[in-house]
Design goal:
single chain, 541 residues, eleven-stranded parallel barrel, 38 strands, elongated, disordered N terminus
Length: 541
């Protein structure tokens, strides 16, 4: 069908207003609202012409009219930075691409405290806008390869190689097949950047090839992100800092039905609350879901469910590096597959990582992690779960329920495995260092609950893999219905408790050999063992 006239296009959009995609007043088109066809403002969509002015005129005209829909028909529109005004719906038709300029001079510097990883303008921006939407089946493309050096030998300086298990041989396998590329020093900002916006709806589109965070929302409220494809596939997931979706101090955000493939974190939350994420597929060279980091604001009241995480460096992560707390966060019904990655990506294959480590020099104190729950997680990984608190900020009320985890030998285990990765830390000795790899490791955790934890190992895992569970410097650990063994039962006990108080282990079935069932060192208050079954281990069992 050809939509040859503005009137015909208005009829089409008027009809779409009754369909499910448009039927909600939240960010959708209003019936009878004006439609602004970018081609009527001179846009060519031929992939060669600079269409910035034409598309910008259409967006500005929509804003002056008090709102409406800016229609982008199929074609490739080469553009520089654009701005979205209140009550505007940008509709990208199937086959329509807003292709970012490849000239960094087209992206001016901005003074923006929420700028993300670049101080320059991005491709599409809204500041202080209300009732905006970006809909359709088209694409926003940031042209990341124009701003990145394809150098695969960058080792970085955020760790001390001599503290790793591999010593000076760590990161010696250049070039790194998994990346990352060397970060360009002068890059555009985010492909999509929204600040202080209300009533936002983004659905159906593809957002790709950003040279920094793809989607960055700061201080936004009442946001729906649905059915998005956010990716850096053109660069083979090797672009550093190209997070999929980052939320900074946002409230009431719903993320669903998205496909995200990026080099850096797929989704990251900083100081946000009331965030729900469900029914998404994620792949990354870093952490699939990152909750918390630095900054003073708390992250609380968030849920993540029905996620498939495939080929990730880390699966689910909770981090405190500054004054901001993380509390009342739950992860449920997730499938997590991780592996070790070449290069200097953060993470060492953990399916779940929770850590509190001082880093922010300007923070007046260290935030806390409280009330974090993991339930219904199925994981295959080359590493175990890590929960690492700090003496001045213990992790409180951390629970694992219905966890099925298989630890496998990874092809990169000898060259990258056997290390804990807590980057970034103020103490450089904590950034990356050699450590045994238990099925679950907890340090400085108070009120740790483990219920129905089924752990298995590949038979040929190498020496640095350890017990099924290790807790150190803890307060109150409750283990129920654990099934599994140490990686090397002839050497290690299945469960190890060191320098803590109050341990309960009940209804567990553990395979043991010479290492035994449980090792207890300096546990100061009662140890309760009840209805546990010890099963002699043999390699065939």
């Amino acid at each position: 069908m050809s939509f040859g006239s503005l009137w015909e296009r208005r009829l089409v959009l008027k009809g779409l207003a009754a369909a499910p995609l448009w039927g909600c007043a939240h960010g959708g088109a209003r019936e009878g609202a004006p439609v602004f066809d970018v081609t009527r403002f001179g846009a060519r969509g031929d992939g060669q012409t600079d269409d910035t002015s034409a598309v910008a005129q259409a967006l500005a005209a929509c804003g002056r009219a008090g709102g409406g829909t800016v229609w982008v028909p199929a074609g490739t529109y080469r553009v520089g930075p654009l701005r979205l005004e209140s009550r505007t719906t940008l509709y990208l038709d199937a086959g329509a691409t807003l292709q970012g300029s490849t000239q960094v001079a087209d992206y001016p510097e901005r003074i923006d405290p929420y700028r993300g990883d670049s101080s320059r303008a991005g491709l599409l921006t809204a500041f202080g806008a209300e009732t905006i939407a970006i809909l359709g089946r088209g694409t926003l493309d940031g042209a990341s390869l124009a701003f990145t050096t394809d150098d695969l030998s960058h080792k970085g300086s955020d760790h001390l190689p001599e503290l790793t298990r591999q010593g000076s041989a760590f990161l010696s396998d250049v070039p790194f097949s998994d990346g990352p590329y060397r970060k360009g020093e002068n890059r555009p900002g985010n492909v999509l950047r929204l600040h202080d916006c209300r009533n936002v709806r983004i659905e159906g589109i593809t957002i790709q090839n950003s040279s920094t965070w793809n989607v960055r929302l700061s201080k936004c409220r009442d946001v729906v992100l649905r059915g998005l494809d956010v990716n850096s596939r053109a660069a083979g997931l090797k672009i550093p800092n190209d997070d999929g979706i980052d939320l900074q101090e946002c409230e009431s955000v719903r993320i669903s039905d998205c496909h995200i493939e990026t080099g850096d974190d797929c989704v990251a939350l900083f100081g946000s609350s009331g965030v729900t994420m469900t029914n998404c597929w994620l792949r990354t060279r870093s952490t699939a879901v990152r909750v918390g980091y630095d900054g003073p604001a708390a992250t609380r009241g968030c849920t993540f469910s029905n996620l498939v995480i495939d080929d990730a460096n880390r699966g689910l992560g909770v981090f405190v590096r500054g004054a901001g707390d993380v509390e009342d966060v739950s992860f449920s019904d997730c499938v997590v597959h991780t592996r070790l990655m070449t290069g200097r990506w953060w993470g060492k294959g953990e399916p779940i990582h929770v850590s509190v480590v001082p880093w922010d020099e300007e923070a007046t104190g260290l935030g806390r992690v409280r009330g974090v729950r993991f339930q219904g997680i199925q994981a295959r990984s080359p590493a175990g779960i890590v929960a690492w608190g700090d003496p001045q900020s213990e992790i409180e009320s951390l629970s694992f329920r219905d966890i099925e985890m298989h630890v496998r030998r990874d092809p990169l285990a000898a060259s990258y495995g056997g290390n804990f990765d807590l980057r970034l830390a103020k103490d450089p000795r904590l950034n990356l260092f050699a450590h045994e790899i238990p099925g679950l490791f907890a340090r400085h955790v108070s009120r740790l609950s483990v219920d129905r934890f089924d752990l298995s190992w590949d038979d040929d895992v190498i020496d640095f893999y350890g017990p099924a569970l290790v807790a150190e410097r803890f307060g109150r650990v409750s283990v129920a219905r654990l099934s599994g063994r140490a990686a090397h039962p002839a050497r290690d006990a299945a469960l190890c408790f060191r320098d803590g108080h109050e341990v309960s282990v009940v209804d567990s079935r553990v395979q043991v050999a010479h290492g035994g069932f449980i090792e207890v060192t300096e546990v100061k208050t009662p140890l309760q063992l009840d209805r546990n079954q010890e099963v002699p281990f043999s390699p065939a069992s």
